[in-house]
Amino acid sequence: MPKLTLFIGKGGVGKTTVSAAYALHRAGRPNKSPVLLLSTDPAHSLSDIFGQALGDQPQKLRLAGKARLDAWQVNAEKQFRIFLDRHKEKLLSILETGSIFSRADIEPLLETTLPGMAEMAALLAISDLLASGKYGQIVVDTAPIGHTLRLFGLPEYFSSFLDVLELAASRDRLLAQHFGGNAPAGANPIVREWRSMVEAVRAALLSNAEIFLVTTPEKFSLNESSRAVLALRSLSPDLDLTAIVLNKAVLGSRHCRMCRAKQAATRSAREFLRRQFSGKELYISEDTGSPLMGPRLQAFGDHIFAGKRFAWRRSAPPTKIRELRLSRVEWPILDRSLSMVLGKGGVGKTTISAALGFNTRLRGDAAVDICSVDPAPSLDDIFQSDISDRPRAVLEDEKFHASEMDAAAVFRTWVRRVKGMIDSATTAEVSSVHVDLWFERQLFSQLLESVPPGLDEILAVLRVLDLVQARSSRVLIDMAPTGHALDLLRTPERILVWTRLLLKSLAHHRTLALARDAGVKIAELGKSIRDLSDFLKNSRRTRVYAVMLPEALPDRQTERLIAELSKLRLSTAAIFVNRVLFKDDAGNCRRCSRTRQWQLSTLTGLSARYSQIPIYVVRNFAQEIAGEKALRRFVGELWRLA
């Protein structure tokens, strides 16, 4: 079986760079089997980092030397469609046999896409690759940690789903046992095939995989890394880290104020990681002050994982960049019922969200509700307070509330309510109906036993709806990283398709109390989702802010984000470019000056591309923003790109 190596971590810590460098390092060794670098993040960056267009299948990278490396950015929808087309007939047959719905009812529901496909497609891709035996090693560049945890939990969910299919396929036998009689036994062949596939992936993920945690010296990143590892271990006792990569480390600086602060943070981070993950290999990846892309990645991988020397200084921008014209401005005040902050993982969405909310409270009387729908939230780090699923006052301000959505807890509450409704609706004593509904109750109960993929996006839509309808305050949503945030924004339209199809199917069974009750609930949900969809697209009620770093990969991903928002009929109200070094910050430091030149190059390109969108420049602070004092200092300065 191929070696499976996964790189996990908070968004923005450099997983793509480090995993690509590692894959090249491994592929560059002589007489070794080919290596595949696989991206499971729906907001892919492999094509950006290698400077090569990547298609829907693994393809060889054009690289100097003899490295035998293929790369694949998994197209979630296409991969899922391939799997569904391969097994649809058998699946339809099982579901038709085991439910009140006909084939005509079920097929349109299977054709409709919902969130969670990115993780499901990754699972299927890994399964196919393990079975193919084509590669000696598969290196996985994962999505940000909150959604990667869904990937590790998928074998368990898929196994539960197979239990449902097995129950549906054995309907006749179970009904005969329940009411007296005989029926042939034996597991369904398709269920056996899929269970074998799931067990192979489970073994690869939970027992045989190497797991590299990538983090940075920032406290937020270290805190989230600790939480992620605890969550990982809670999924299975077999899940554990192989090694840690401390990325963007600064190891030596005598003259630069910014670098001295980073050096101190690096020293503290090394001590923290050695205490927290005793016995694990710790690799150090130094901050070069410039983008690492293309062929240089192999030398970077050799430096990190083999201790070879790396030429840090040969990485200046192609041309000298002129100084930019900046004007000092006030931070915007939230002036819409709903505001959403989007961007690549690790660019500072939560910090900008907190600053927008805090500034609105400082300069006005409007109440603010800020909610994180990121499955790996950081509001508690920013506000230095325990933030839960229920809104609570922060910074001793009764008009400033914060919450972090706990999708699993919300789902469990919903399941209890739904099970109660199903039980009460299936207790009729009309014998000709009772038989069917007894089995339906077992099927629904089994289906509701595990948390499905895509739950975060679906429940986030409902949370946004509840906040907008229930609160008179300004609602501010700190979104998940780009790929999953876009999934969330597409979800209302997808749910509307499902509600229409479900209502049509339930209409055929309106004589059943359960079908009537479900139909009423689904119709109510459809109306609420339509209202939210209209709300999101109304610029007089909703604003969308994009956050990015002045770096090559976030810049390209932000360009794609704004284009996708436009397709969804959502206009970008402003772009915040976070952590920008100013001239007096860089001083005479070579690393900081090199970083600043690349930042100016990025800002120049932004100014040319988005002349109609306000571009705000946020200075880089040496210390992380946490607590009221730091937030007050943070919102005391903002610049606009002229």
Helix content: 40-55%
Low-pLDDT segments, ≥5 res: 429-436
Structural class: alpha/beta
The dominant shape is globular
Tell me about the largest β-sheet: 10 strands, mixed
**Radius of gyration of CA atoms, rounded to a whole number:** 26 Å
Strand order of the largest sheet: 9-18-17-16-15-10-14-11-13-12
Distance between the termini: 56 Å
Tally of DSSP β-strands: 18
Q: Would you write up a description of this structure?
A:
This protein is globular. Helix 9 links the parallel strand 6 (210-215) and strand 7. The protein has 642 residues and is α/β, with parallel strands linked by helices. The chain contains 22 helices and 18 strands. The strands form two sheets. The protein has a ten-stranded mixed β-sheet, with helices on both faces. It has an eight-stranded mixed β-sheet with strand order 3-4-2-5-1-6-7-8, with helices on both faces. 46% of the residues are buried.
